[in-house]
Amino acid sequence: MLLENVSCPLCESQDSRLWAEENGFRAVRCSGCDLIFVNPRPQLQSISEANRIGQHRTLDGSLDVVFRRSTRKIRHYRQTLSKLVVDEFKHGRPVKWLDVGAGFGEVLEAILPLLPEGSEAQGIEPMAPKASAAQKRGLPVSTRLLSEVQETYDVVSLINVFSHIPDFRSFLADLKAVLKPGGILIIETGNAGDLQKLSEYPDRLFLPDHLVFAGVEHMRRFLRDGSFEIEEVIMQRRDSISYAAKNAVKRALGNLDAPLVAPYRSPFRTVFFKSRSAGAAP
Ligand SMILES: [Zn+2]
To answer: For residue 63, what is the enclosing H or E element?
Structure first.
């Protein structure tokens, strides 16, 4: 597999130090801005190919990333997203919502009951097996790429996608292009870029499926530079007592990949950013 050396996707610095190694790949920390990213990384063509088929080539084989639909996720997304949009939808006018990287359609299932009557929600997902699983459940998820989307939307969501995007600056410009002026962009990602040590991360890194790990300030900077105004940030712990207990049970049953976590100790957070594209309200 061909790899290429890249500069920092946020500040373009070429200086970095090793942060973690996994599956034969290196995640480095930028000396200029502390962002964490895979370097060297697979070439863009192999990244998009891997995202289509759901399998990444690694040094010692392959990493499968199709996984399964999760109903727990649907409940969690519905709860958090409703906090972020409840005031927006008070007017009761229909809205158009696009979920980018829609997976099995969990985000669409989560938001459908929240939308005013007459609204429209669609998803795009490059990974064909996921998109067709969503279609079978009656959810409008297509394999179109973001650059192929022609319409514009009131809300665009990007949930658990950021780390897969090699060049988020240009991706953010594409997101802006499908948002109406004053439209809302919701991004969810972890804050791994804020962690000092790999041991503070509550899971495997899944390199090179995940290519970039930002912290809260990194994301603020990406959004500011892309002419988005951040309106709300929600940070959620992963290391609850029930999460710790669940993993302890998995380990006891022989799944040594389950991370051993002490509850309420980790600085890792899942972070939701609600931001607004500069321009007049729709
Ligand atoms: Zn940097």
So the answer is: strand 61-64
Report the separation in Å between the CA atom of 142 and the middle of ligand 1, taken as the mean of its atom positions: 34
Specify the 3-state DSSP secondary structure of 110: helix
Q: pLDDT digits over 4-15, tens only?
A: 999 999 999 999
Query: How much distance in Å is there from the Cα of 199 to the middle of ligand 1?
Result: 22
- Is residue 244 within 8 A of residue 93, CB to CB? The reply is no
Maximum distance among all Cα pairs of the chain, rounded to whole angstroms: 55
Contacts of 160 by beta carbon, 8 Å cutoff, 6+ apart? 101, 103, 188, 189
CA of 172 to the centre of ligand 1 (A): 17
On whether the CB atoms of residues 9 and 37 are closer than 8 A, the answer is: yes
Per-residue pLDDT at 281: 54
Angle between helices 168-177 and 216-225 (to 10 degrees): 50
CB 242 within 8 A of CB 64: no
121: β partners: 97
CA 247, CA 58: separation in Å to the nearest integer?
Answer: 26
CA of 214 relative to ligand 1 center, distance in Å:
10
Alpha helix (H) residue ranges in 122-253 = 128-136, 168-177, 216-225, 241-252
* 89 CA → ligand 1 middle, Å: 37
**What pLDDT does 66 receive?**
66
Among candidate residues 203, 127, 190, 182, the one with its CA nearest the CA of residue 159? 190
